[in-house]
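User: Here's a chain of 101 residues. Predict its fold as tokens.
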Amino acid sequence: MSSTGQYISVRETAQLLGINEKKVMDLIDSQELRAYKIANQFLRLKKNEVMTLRSSGSVETETNIIPYSTGERVRDFFYFNDFYLVSLAAILILIYTIFQT
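Assistant: Prediction complete.
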């Protein structure tokens, strides 16, 4: 396939343009970018069209850095690892009961 026919995903487009995926979808909705459905299922964009939009300078990259506080880190740790923490506690309780009897 030639470089003019190379298709990329919405995520790859967002990375190339330095914006989030929602903004890429907004660009597609406003018809600044043309999207293609592959197999009537996957949304793809032509890489050369994305690079043309990027070089035109009409899309500003996002530099918003949202601070991630310590409290949020702790909350996320427990949220995403709750199964492992509960499993570890159950294993420790079982080991304790086995060696105490």
